[in-house]
Amino acid sequence: MAIRNILTYPDKFLRQTAKPVTAFNDDLQVLIDDMIETMYDEPGVGLAAVQIGSDLSVIVYDVTQTEGERRAEALVNPKIVFREGSVLSENEGCLSVPDFRSDVKRDAHIRVEGLDRHGNPVDIDADEFLAIVLQHEIDHLNGVLFIDRISSLKREMYKRKRKKQLRQQT
Ligand code: NI
């Protein structure tokens, strides 16, 4: 396993639509293990493959909030097949959007269909925190970042801040 570099806004790679996984081979297992290790290293509660430079439709997440009780899950080719209600995701953040958090409107209850890392069908009924995390990660697979779901005023503020930050780094 290896910790991989996380792409950050405004990297254009983050804007593409992920490709469905068709081969459940060793390369896929390595990708998933690297994603899990990278997620824990940051630390984050979820990660999409696109964030480490892979164009495959894969996400990993771990919503266990207790230290020492890790349970990472991987979902391949996930699709939201049902959504209901509305919830405010408070102070949402993203490893690809450094130094910024915002409230985001999300669906309160979703149903996700996909495959596990070995290609077996999975479906998940999610609400609360898990529903938010899954929506955030599945957004990544469609090239969408959480800053696309906030007011344009807030988004412009972040863009300016980020530009300034990047100028200072070079
Ligand atoms: Ni993210």
Compact overview of the structure:
The chain has 170 residues and is of the alpha+beta class. It has helices at 26-41, 128-141, 152-169, and strands at residues 46-48, 58-61, 73-84, 87-94, 97-106, 109-115, 121-127. The protein has a five-stranded antiparallel beta sheet. A two-stranded antiparallel ribbon has the order 4-5.
Q: Can you give a write-up of this model?
A:
A hairpin with a 5-residue loop joins strand 6 (109-115) and strand 7. The protein has one domain (12-169): Peptide Deformylase (Alpha-Beta Complex). The chain is 28% helix and 30% strand. The protein is α+β, with helices and mostly antiparallel strands and 170 residues long. It has helices at residues 26-41, 128-141, 152-169, and strands spanning 46-48, 58-61, 73-84, 87-94, 97-106, 109-115, 121-127. It has a five-stranded antiparallel beta sheet with strand order 1-2-3-6-7. The protein has a two-stranded antiparallel sheet with strand order 4-5. The protein starts with 25 loop residues before the first helix and ends with a helix. Nickel (II) ion is lined by residues 94-96, 136, 140.
